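hiii so my PI (J.) wants the whole complex modelled not just the main chain, which honestly fair. so below is everything: two entries, each one labled with what it is. i double checked the lines twice but i was tired so who knows lol
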Amino acid sequence: MKRLLAALGALCALAACGGGGAGTPSEPSATSTPVPGVPSGGAPIFDPTVLHDARLELDPAAWKALRVNYLSNQYYAANFSVDGVAVSQVGIRSRGDGSRSEEKPGLKIDFNQFVPSQEYYGYKSLVIDNLTQDASMLRERLAFLVFEAMGIASPRNAHARLSVNGEYWGLFALVEPVSKPFLKSRLGEESGTLFDYEWRFHYDFDWLGGDPVEYVPEPFEPETNEAKPDVATGIVAFIQTLNQAPSAGFVATMGSWLDVDRFLTHVAIENALAEDDGIVGDQGLNNFYLYEYGQKNRFVFIPWDKDNAFTSGNWPLYRNLDRNVLTARLTSDPAKRQVYAAAVARATSEYVNPRWLTPQLETAYQQIRGAALADVRKPFSNGEFEAAVAGARGVIATREHDVNAQR
Amino acid sequence: MTKPALVALLSLSLHGPSGAQDKPPTPPPAKPPEGWKVEPFSLGNKAAGFEVALTGYAQADFRSFQDWQVGDGSDETLRADDFEWRRLRIGLEGEWRKLVFEFDVDPAFDEGDELKDARLGLRFSRALEIDGGHFKPPVSPERLTSPAKTDFIERAAFVESLAPDRDWGGMLSGEIGRALEWSAGVFEGDDRTSSRRAGTTAAARLVLKPARWLDLGGSFSQGDVAASPPSAGVDPRPKGLEGTSGTGYEFFPGVYVNGRRRRWGADARIQGGPVSVWGEFLEAREERKGQGPTLEDLPDVYGRGWSATATWLITGDRKTRTIRPARGLPGGPGAVELSARYEELWFDDVSNQGFESAGSRAGNIRPAGIRTFTGGLSWWPTRFLRFQGNVLVERYDDPLRAPEPGNAGDYVSLLSRVQVHLP
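here's the output for the full assembly
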């Protein structure tokens, strides 16, 4: 009898205490598991020196539905591979705002949509950019190279030939998603709140009042910590501060909220690249992520979607800075205005010039040209493609001189 | 519930409701009126044909997942925490002449799911009773067994995944001789609190008893599921039945269905003395009219499962629906039962052509299944208390649908339960 009691007690205790097992449901989960056979710790799919071979296999009816309903975010199951490294039963959906296309859909791939915890090279998702808003098909790749060279963490990016059920569907770009792996590897932590800025109206960081719904989930859409009831508290306080903090000491005040010089460098790169759809875009704020570090009222901007870069060789040095509340107030400080101007100058003198960026362009061009010309679903002709590449060459050739002339 | 309260409850359970053994004699209670019989948890008057009883039980579950990482609850992959007040059931049941009633609630459940049984019936004879209210459609003997009395902590995964659950309805039932039990009813749906609920559902069950030790049963239900209308953005959640393991892991999330949902099941039980051997089979098949990616009809989806169970009360007590130890504590060891169950559950579609997909609108559904062995030990030290310990070993047919993608198993989990119940 005693043995029986002891055995039952031990079983109950073992279950209650967890038995030293690998984990219990109450522990923070290791929510990700790599796909077997897929190497971890690197992302060769974003290696820009290779034109990658991406393949999708799915039910033809599902592919047709995805294209017909290209405005929908409905997921469909597919098998996916890049350069022969396969992952099964991923979820794919149409993505983008203005770039959505029935003929050549941009795609978001969620590796864990149908297979919980599934990852691919450590990522839970991947963006396959359809490159339909850039006839040169290489502006974003070049722009991100400049951001990285200037020390601003930006998504990795590489071109790929995509085939769907064995049929060549065109030239696409594989874009690293801005998500927790990105935050962890590039910013060193991931516990904070990542906001995806979704353009909904012309907005320049104006104070819209203290009601969080004016800011979250639109235009600042939380991508992490979405369920936290106070997810908007920090960003509302940030916007209130940048609007209402006294001019005296404003730079110092903002210095506690963000790395001011880094932010000005981000904006400077956009203007060095003659980009008209970024933080000081013609239509207001656009194309960035805003990350609020965990446990801190501190933010950092992350660039996104740079296919509107290289718009013109002649681009005002301080273009639109006065329209955005944050850039206007920061650059009204002479020292910070100088920081901004110096950053534009450094970007052009070191990177956005024929010596550094043109070779990058030519390498990319040679790499993608055949696939681009064979891409019959791109919304522009082969002639327009060549002309757009030539246009980018021209912008690169003139930016340094143009900036210097304005200083 | 606080620890002292739990200790007090356990103490009550170990010593019985009177708790009189160590106390000085107390004055006899006031004598009840003529004909009335007062028990600790019931009141009855045979002459008046009246009886009412308090029913209820509390269950505390402990879980340990030995071989696998589990979710944090945010993605609904697991139902339970490592400790959970699983059930806190309280109710009344009774009869007055031909009228029978049953009512119980469970405040431990989520809001909206507190109501369990609420049944009012007229018993015309053993052969005919008519009931109405909120209760389980008569499909699957394990589903129809109270969770306080099941052989294992968790019902078989296929029962949890495929069998209907409580809903509003009416039912006729009865027993013909000692050889046949029957029940047939119509319900508003097949699970009132489920987002996958079918519409009006008819259900019936027949149990043949060719010998005292043998039951042979069959069940059937049929209802129609109406797909939610498509929305402009992302489609609504699928209403197809989902596959969930005994440890709460959802390995088949359900697909879009529209049309008939039909179940049929068969079961057999051999029971004699301290031993029982029984098995059950259940299949649910659902139509998918217009549920393809381009609104085409898709082949039916089915979920199918079976189990085989053996139990042995090693203390020699008689195996009945309600175990009452012949020699409970402190005079005896109580009742101790060993049990083992093997079960399988799998989902697929009736056709297997084209791209095999895990998508919710897959023409050719990627099959998903699980095989589970459960070993169990139950101990009833008194009429009021039950301890259970179960070991679950789970293996998934599709490694991609396993808790750790690529690792089909085996996944070992330990479950234990403390249950305090009214007799």
